[in-house]
Amino acid sequence: MVFLTPRPDPALVAERLGAVATAPLHMVAARLHEVIDEVLPHRALAVFTEDCTGRPQKKAGDPVITERITIAELDTVRRLVAGGEPPGSAVIAGTEHPVRVYDAPTGAVLVLCEPGDPTYLGAEAYVRAVWTTAATRIQQQVAEARPDYLRESRAASSERLQVTAELTARHETDLETLLATLRGRDLDDARARVLATDMAAAALVRVRAGSDLVASLAEEAVSQAFRRLRDDLRPLSRYGGIQVQFIEPPADGRALPGEVAHAARAIVRSAVLLMREQEDVTRIRVQWNCDGTNLLISMRDDGPGFLDQGRPALRHLAARATALGGHLTVEAVETWGSEIDVRIPLDPPDTSGTAMHMWDLGPRETEVLHLLVAGQRNRQIAAELGISENTVKFHTSQVYRKLGVTSRAAAAALAVDAGLGFSDSASAHVARR
């Protein structure tokens, strides 16, 4: 074991922390891998966080591992850590590997697969500081609910749930068929039949549990989402001199997709603060409701009634709603106050299915096309999807062939022209090219 120095250069530490803190969500894992590997070499790493509903797992490193890591494996590691038993080894990518696991105050976990020897005595504290910074920043970026994040998160959630549902249905059918066969009278070896039946039943339970886990990561009960909002705004009522009235949604209302819950809380928080800035505002009412198809948000103040929808702050809030296919309206009546109403559909538009059927794209090819339109290069796409650059190149070539184009710009332009719901920034990127 070789230690280069007992204490790193403070300027270098600050630089590395800054690099992690400023990383966009799709680059967090790659940035962590690069920074941590300098002090604690490892083969691959994975981040698991329930905050980011679009892609709760973020991976970087050896694609032999990163391309096969599952949410269920990372959730098992997280449960062990939460129970006070951080494992020294774990099943990652279907194989037992030595691991080093770090938790965070946000509930996220970092898993280093096949870690080596640290390069200096302070490596452990350094890694924990870098990881805590990254986990906090992930939570902040999700809470901010920027329009580009909401678009990407909705697309990823929709695709993941669709693929998971198909796989689960296929596995359930296979296992149920196996159980029916083994329970038949044609198998003479009773002991083998009992053993095989037990194994198949256990496998069926695991498949269904995995499906439930994925669904729970992608959705949030409407009552729980509203309770989190109320907790966020409670200090404003207590110390801000404003009475915030909460009218809760029905307790049995339909669960909210994660990106809708994040966007709704971010919109309400910003709108309440905006209303509070007006003179003579003493009361703000916040109401959520669900009609089975949409989340309906209403915020009303008792101020002067001068809120203008053209204000930059309100345009930004409207962009969040628009990113999820919804809309925001403002009605202001002088001396009566202002009201902001927001409607956000709970189901995403079927743009991914359109792309898949229009050009016969597979789920991964659709995902690569989405990121390509967003202006990401092969290295960024590889980091975002947890695959190798060579795999990205393969999928890109398949996309080109199916779209009948020969360049990234042409593929992006064709996708945007088809109206597949990609972001405005992506359209601007295509135009610049």
Automatic annotation (TrEMBL):
Coiled coil: none annotated. The keyword DNA-binding applies. Residues 354-419 form the HTH luxR-type domain. Keywords: DNA-binding, Transcription, Transcription regulation. It holds the Pfam family GerE. It comes from the Bacteria. CDD domains: LuxR_C_like (cd06170). InterPro entries: HATPase_C_sf (IPR036890), Sig_transdc_resp-reg_C-effctor (IPR016032), Tscrpt_reg_LuxR_C (IPR000792), WH-like_DNA-bd_sf (IPR036388). This is LuxR C-terminal-related transcriptional regulator. It comes from Streptomyces yanii.
